[in-house]
## 1
Amino acid sequence: MLVALAMAAVAVWIATHTYWDYVTVDNPPQGEAVGNRYYAFEKLTQRFAIHTRQVPTLRALPAADGVLLVDDVRGALLDMGALEKWVTAAAVC
């Protein structure tokens, strides 16, 4: 009983003498991440053994079991009909 009381007293002391505060840490990108905005995404997919590549145009879509990440559809040279066929083919697989 005395040990439980001492532990409770320590827990109360810690709770009353500590606080959470937000600290802003300036950690700008370094190395390849400076010029490649998808650097973290590419490294994550590599950990899952997924091959990634950046292409200048979407005229040739990836395989039906592939993954497609489009940042800006307005700026992409994209055939919407071909994209719909690609999505349908992936759903069938």
## 2
Amino acid sequence: MNPWDSSRTTGASSAEAAAIATGMSPLGLGNDGLGSLRHPAQCCGISALKPTLGRIPHATTVGPTDMATIGMQLTQVNGPLARQIADLRRAFEVIAGPTWRDPWTVPAPLRGPEPARPIKIAVVLDPAGQGTAGEVQDGMSKAADALVQEGYVVDELEPRGIDAAAKALVVMLATPGIRAVWEQVMPPSLPAPTRRFMSAFFEAAGDPDAVAAEQSFITRQALLRSWSEFQEHHPLILAPIATDIPSKAGTDLDEGRVAEDLQTMRMAMAVNTLGLPAVALPVGIQDGLPQAVQLIGPGYREDICLDAAAAIEGRVGIITPIDPR
């Protein structure tokens, strides 16, 4: 249940966000493959960190199943959720680091070289020009104003290929190989909503052939290079998570809804495609619902994402814990 409005979704699959928002838990862990850390943070008014690919390991006491296809390996990461950026940073420092359990992990330092000052931030109000709700844009303006007050330089511009990156993710996660894996791991005991979601997702993805699947990885490489160049002069990107307010609870599997949600999540999905770090945080409340933004950094620069998020938080404050409404 969304503690801000029980008629609204808690967002994606990291349901612990609602527990954190109400003070039931100080920290949480989740997985982000289609925005499933950042969207619950937006809906419930808390913070979350989607790390760089290879930063936080997929490692548990349960042995690996080795069922993840290359598209899943490149786009899904684990990360923490918290009410405050300081707690998010502490959790990140504890769980980051290489391990033999996850071959993708790398021993990158937690803090990189000091960036040139003032740090420039690209502000993307309406990703790919496909429409963004006024409530979301208002939250973006609040965050941008806070950053200016903290000495950052903000420019309204966007890296190229946001829509192409989001569409590439859908193809990467809907290849014939992934569909075959789901047929193997989707027993009748799996919750019916999960089976329905995956069916709707594959329907929205169409039926990409082997050529389209290969092209999606080529697109990923080209856009990652382009964004890396972009972030040479604007290291941080301030953008929406979902471009609309939380939808009505129970409507996420309505006819055509999954395809609509993929469109509103295009900026979050682009970040998954490219494996970049992003911090989600609340920036205010409008009409009884949290407003949120994400700060996207270059690879392995979670540190400057967290620094900027802390700067915003210091200006706009923390909006949880709250009592459910």
## 3
Amino acid sequence: MSATRILIAEDDGLIVQDLRERLESLDYEVSGTTPHAREVIELAESLRPDLVLMDIQLPGEMDGIQAAERLRVLNVPFVYVTGCCNDRMLARAQVTEPCGYVLKPYQTRELRTAIEIGLYKHRVERQRERAGLLPICCYCKKIKDVEGRWGEVEAYISKLTGASFTHGMCPCCFERVKKQLDTLEENSSIVRSMIRR
């Protein structure tokens, strides 16, 4: 069985070296490292790692959270390994649906646990998708796509198949609505006759 390949997105060279040593001691393969958010996206596309360890505060015009949003589109799981834990940053990070969140300074067992749970969670999500299970809101009927965004059923199907929609009414709904309209018309004619008296 081949080793799990992990990409590291971290701008502190000492932390990169520490992560590499800890990961290799756990029999993970470090497929690459980068200090830049934009480059982690390019590396994820070319290297196809099994998971990305992502720092939030990375130099450049894009931070780790913005890069993580793009990783979701690429279907690459990620775990934040960061010193950031303020409420605003945590709220932004949660929306990206990471597989884990490890605060610095970290312990080796915390890293391993976050990685293994993250890989398992990602594997289960993919199996559900392949099995034809779609997360759908039981109230508004929006569907959660593979990027983790909630959208209208029509938009989801259109994106998947290229189909466009016209709206009609099935026979069952037509009968139900017709009864409601007939009842309204009957009630309104009763009201009109009462008003005339």
